[in-house]
């Protein structure tokens, strides 16, 4: 009851009217295939139905008994095959499913082209039941919009997690693979239930020990993990160290154009595929934050990526190459080097040079997962390159799962953002899903927020981000509210009043967090290294390229073409003009693009300084309201769930005050301008 079963809790309290329907259809399951994923799907369906309906489910319906049948289109019993038309089968594509209730056949059938599709169909049906939907007239065709729906773990072999806020790793402990197979299976179930089909199991910063994952020392254990994932339709990926040929291969170079190096990777790939026949491929962080890469040898990133791609190609593997490349040793006195420009400047010139089995992984914004950033201008700029968007589920800069920040609204906004590529209407979601330019490899990746905490995500409500990411990767057209509703109903209750309280909390949380932290898109006012809590100048005189340039007159980074770094010109169409213009730039990103006096008047009618004061006072009040709203649920939801969230919201309310006071005080001291309302500033 701690949240361990998350959205697969299969709570019993279902509404009466529908319950009757569920009982009628859910009395028996017909599943005839031996294939392991289909077996897992049937087992999941039985588990879910029995828990939610409180009766046992048989494997053989009586004559004329309503029942659920599941299987692949090719192997379903002939009796059910006519339930699916050619058109539907085509529309379900490789990974999707069709669900149909047929009274004439006494059957609710779940069909798919692949076993994974059947599994997704089962989870969809369970979700319908868990959220109280009617099931006796179903005709659903659903196919994932994105090809890759990927999770990145930043877990280290010693058991720590880079930017992990839910305890240590449940994959590794003290340089060993975990023995807790049950937890791994539960994790795989949970991921499959929202459509995840790819997981990279180790940190993109690959240290010495993890470099050995691709050697005989650890490959057998990596393979065991892949076996568990495979049952649930998930392919395993590894982050690799670009310097592996030197570190574990005994070569003197990792130069991608050296024949020895190429040969080494070719052999390595064969070795990996011998152990894991469906191995997904490599995730690579190169020439970034002190990681090795092709630059050392005077080669560019296309040469580096393509060399690995050649090695994986014969086995059907791919290279996921990250675009998080910038100078992290910048002199803060240098006002011309702009970190925000870096990804575009590095990768735009390489468009069209990557092999077909390479995909670039691009962070959603140009900097690094701040609470508010513009969308990365690379989206829309790479017409001839496969690409994935990278989100951060783990709340590194958004409260570290101590503060509530439901991120789905942020991701939605990003996915809907119009890039103006190819004319008028080209939202990021269509670049990412590959439909704009017909990219073969496409989709989403995200840094996960899970750890060995019993509820997976530390803050129970942060589970909604993990759930939401998967749902959005499957279908980016779902709304943030819809996703929140599903999660709330599956985890807590179908009670409308309870639902509304929790939904209100989730939906307001991003804006609340934004309001008491760094203002107007400037970001970065956090403590160095761990990134929790306020520190206005924490990164101001550092080499990381993350500045706000506040002085006694004003604040902000001038990224205009005329007087600034010219970053705004990396955008297309109206975006470039809007961001470049002081007059038209949206308030929420003003300080990202412009350096302005504190007296500058926003579209809202307030001055920048008064906006900072007001927003921070209001933010603290709104954070306190989160706690009082949650308190109204005491006694109405399970105590174990209630109390863990209460504890976090209490910390948030207190900590928001610290943010307010440090930010407001800083700007009052810098500017000397009084708060119009004469509230307490220190
Ligand atoms: C930053 C993190 C750092 C990661 C890096 C990355 O602070 O720990 O290694 O991103 O994405 O957000 O590689």
From TrEMBL:
- InterPro entries for the chain: A-glucoronidase_C_sf, GH, Glyco_hydro_67_aGlcAse, Glyco_hydro_67_aGlcAse_N, Glyco_hydro_67_C, Glyco_hydro_67_cat, Hex-like_dom2
What are the UniProt keywords, alphabetically? Carbohydrate metabolism, Glycosidase, Hydrolase, Polysaccharide degradation, Xylan degradation
Catalytic activity reads: Hydrolysis of (1->2)-alpha-D-(4-O-methyl)glucuronosyl links in the main chain of hardwood xylans
Q: Give Gene Ontology CC terms.
A: extracellular region
The Glycosyl hydrolase family 67 C-terminal domain covers 458-679
Query: What Pfam families does the annotation carry?
Result: Glyco_hydro_67C, Glyco_hydro_67M, Glyco_hydro_67N
Keyword Glycoprotein attached: no
Q: Which residues form the Alpha glucuronidase N-terminal domain?
A: 6-125
| Active-site residues from the entry | 289, 368, 396
| Gene Ontology MF terms | alpha-glucuronidase activity; xylan alpha-1,2-glucuronosidase activity
Task: Return the EC number.
Answer: 3.2.1.131
Q: Name one GO biological process term.
A: glucuronoxylan catabolic process
Give every Glycosyl hydrolase family 67 catalytic domain span: 131-456
* Record flagged with keyword Cell inner membrane: no
- Record-linked Gene3D superfamilies: Alpha-glucuronidase, C-terminal domain (3.90.1330.10), Chitobiase/beta-hexosaminidase domain 2-like (3.30.379.10), Glycosidases (3.20.20.80)
Cross-referenced PANTHER family = ALPHA-GLUCURONIDASE A
The record's subunit annotation is:
Homodimer.
Family, according to the entry, reads as follows: Belongs to the glycosyl hydrolase 67 family.
Q: What is this protein called?
A: Xylan alpha-1,2-glucuronidase
Organism per entry:
Paenibacillus algorifonticola
């Amino acid at each position: 009851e701690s949240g361990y079963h998350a959205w697969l809790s299969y709570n019993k309290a279902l509404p009466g009217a529908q319950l009757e329907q569920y009982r009628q259809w859910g009395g028996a399951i017909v599943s005839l295939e031996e294939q392991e994923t289909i077996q897992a799907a049937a087992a999941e369906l039985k588990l879910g139905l029995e828990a939610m309906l409180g009766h046992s489910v048989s494997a053989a319906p009586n004559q004329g008994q309503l029942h659920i049948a599941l299987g692949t289109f090719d192997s379903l019993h002939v009796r059910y095959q006519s339930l699916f038309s050619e058109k539907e089968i085509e529309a379900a594509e490789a990974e999707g499913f069709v669900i149909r209730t047929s009274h004439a056949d006494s059957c609710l059938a779940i069909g798919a082209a692949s076993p994974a599709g059947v599994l997704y169909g089962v989870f969809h049906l369970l979700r319908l039941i868990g959220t109280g939907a009617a099931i006796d007239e179903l005709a659903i065709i659903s196919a994932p919009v994105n090809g890759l729906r990927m999770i990145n773990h930043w877990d280290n072999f010693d058991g720590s997690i880079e930017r992990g806020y839910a305890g240590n790793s449940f994959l590794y402990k003290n340089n060993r693979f975990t023995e807790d197979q049950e937890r791994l299976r539960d994790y795989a179930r949970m991921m499959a239930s929202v459509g995840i089909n790819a997981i990279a199991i180790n940190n993109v910063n690959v240290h010495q020990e993890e470099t050995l994952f691709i050697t005989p020392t650890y490959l057998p254990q990596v393979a065991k993990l892949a076996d568990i994932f495979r049952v649930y339709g998930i392919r395993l990926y590894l982050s690799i160290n670009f310097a592996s040929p030197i570190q574990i291969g005994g070569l003197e170079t990792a130069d991608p154009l050296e024949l020895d190096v190429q040969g080494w990777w070719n052999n390595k790939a064969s070795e990996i595929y011998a152990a894991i026949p469906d191995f997904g491929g490599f995730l690579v962080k190169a020439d970034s934050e002190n990681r090795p890469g092709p630059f050392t040898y005077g080669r560019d990133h296309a040469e580096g990526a393509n060399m690995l791609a050649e090695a994986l190609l014969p086995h059907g593997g791919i290279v996921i190459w990250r675009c998080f490349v910038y100078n992290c040793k910048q002199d803060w006195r240098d006002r011309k080097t702009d970190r925000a420009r870096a990804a575009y400047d590095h990768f735009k010139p390489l468009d069209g040079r990557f092999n077909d089995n390479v995909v670039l992984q691009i962070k959603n914004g140009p900097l690094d997962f701040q609470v508010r950033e513009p969308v990365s201008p690379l989206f829309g700029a790479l017409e001839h390159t496969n690409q994935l968007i990278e989100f951060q589920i783990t709340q590194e800069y958004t409260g570290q799962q101590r503060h509530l920040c439901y991120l789905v609204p942020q991701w939605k906004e990003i996915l809907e953002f119009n890039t103006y590529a190819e004319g008028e209407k080209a939202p990021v979601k269509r670049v990412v899903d590959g439909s704009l330019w017909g990219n073969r490899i496409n989709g989403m990746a995200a840094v996960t927020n899970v750890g060995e905490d019993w509820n997976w995500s530390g803050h129970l409500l942060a589970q909604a981000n993990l759930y939401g990411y998967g749902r959005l990767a499957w279908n980016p057209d779902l709304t943030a509210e819809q996703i929140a509703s599903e999660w709330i109903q599956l985890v807590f209750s179908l009670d409308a009043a309870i639902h509304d309280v929790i939904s209100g909390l989730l939906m307001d949380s991003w804006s609340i967090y934004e309001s008491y932290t760094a203002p107007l898109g400037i970001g970065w006012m956090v403590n160095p290294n761990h990134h929790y809590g306020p520190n206005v100048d924490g990164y101001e005189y550092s080499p990381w390229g993350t500045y706000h340039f506040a002085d006694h007159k004003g604040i902000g980074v001038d990224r205009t073409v005329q007087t600034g770094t010219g970053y705004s010109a990396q955008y297309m169409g109206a975006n470039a003009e809007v961001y470049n213009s002081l007059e038209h730039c949206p308030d929420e990103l003003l300080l990202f693009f412009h350096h302005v006096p504190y007296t500058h008047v926003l579209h809202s009618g307030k001055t920048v300084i008064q906006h900072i004061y007001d927003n921070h006072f209001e933010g603290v009040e709104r954070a306190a309201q989160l706690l009082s709203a949650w308190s109204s649920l005491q006694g109405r939801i399970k105590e174990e769930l209630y109390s863990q969230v209460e504890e976090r919201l209490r910390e948030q309310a207190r900590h928001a005050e610290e943010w307010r006071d440090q930010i407001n005080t800083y700007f009052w001291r810098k500017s000397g301008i009084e708060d119009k309302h004469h509230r307490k500033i220190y």
